[in-house]
Structures are given as structure tokens and as C-alpha cells.
Write a structure and sequence with these properties.
The protein has about 190 residues and is an alpha+beta fold. It is built from 9 helices and 6 strands. Helix 1 crosses helix 3 and helix 3 crosses helix 5.
Length: about 190
Amino acid sequence: EGIYFARYLNSAAEGFFRFMLGRRYEEIIAKAYIQPHHDLSYENVIFAELDGIIVGMFSGYTAEQHRLASKQVLKDAAGRWNVRMLIVSVVFAPLLRIIDSITDEDFYLQAIAVETSLQGKGIGSKLMNSVEDLARKRGAKRLALDVSAKNANARQLYERRGYSIESTWPKHFSTRAFEFHRMIKQLD
């Protein structure tokens, strides 16, 4: 499961985790995945299966879960001397801190991904329904997610599901390459 999670997480993040962790990203994320109480933990992941094969997943958590999450688990899994992760963490710190801005009423959808060959077959919709159900069970009033400004297809999919853009960040970059939209959906 950890390797599947790593692959889907990296796909949803448009290659960011491989960029940050290097060629061992799957191994590092899988090692972190089996540890509890952090953002990349198995506790925050639900997989979609088709005929017993994992074909997609989502990862998400409440603001409280995020605040209480260990920041050390991924560092430990990567190893003390993972220079690449250290550099990316420093350079991209302002972008990475955006997750800290989710409010107490939010359930944050960290990642959602479906096997490329099965996209458009309803698996993503079933995963999104599961996200909404889980968010309600955990007492969230809203769903929040961040989507790359250049990912028009994903943004349109979220809009069709009732999400709207609440903000765009960062405000000080002039390139859309690093621009994201925070999208919000009110839960009933």
C-alpha cells in the first residue's frame, strides 16, 4: 500500500515528491506511510480497488489532525542527510506553509489520484463522495484543497462538484508555474 500511496501522491502533486525526495521517493514515502500521526500516514488514506487491485486513492485530514501531526516522520524516513529534501524544504517553505492555513472547520483534501487508464470511469467521483462522507463524520463544515492554476481540467472537475476558488497563492510570484488556487466546498 505504501508504494501505491507514494506513486499516487506524487502523481497528484505533479511530480513534487520525486523532485523533493529524489529517486528513492517511493521507498521514503512508503516508510513514512506506515507510521501513525502525520500527514502522510495510512490513517489519512483511502484506496479505491477494482477486482482486488488498487486503482486510486485519496488522502486528507482535518485541521486539528494536521496541527497535531508530526513533522519529523518524513525527515526520519528520508534520512538525516537527505540534502535534496532539506534544500527543497527551505526554498519552498512559503509554498509548503499554505497547508497550515486550513481553518478548524475544514477537512483538507491533500491528494486524490486515479490510475490514468481508468480516469473518466467514475472512480474519482466515488473517491470524492467518500472524501465528503469522511469529512462530515469528522465534523468538518467545508472541504478545502489546493490545485495548480495550470491544471484547468482538475479545477473544472472540482467546480462541477461544487467547489469554488477562495484564494490564489502565492500572491507575489508572477509565474503561473507555482500558482495555486485554494478551492472550498461547503458541506451540508
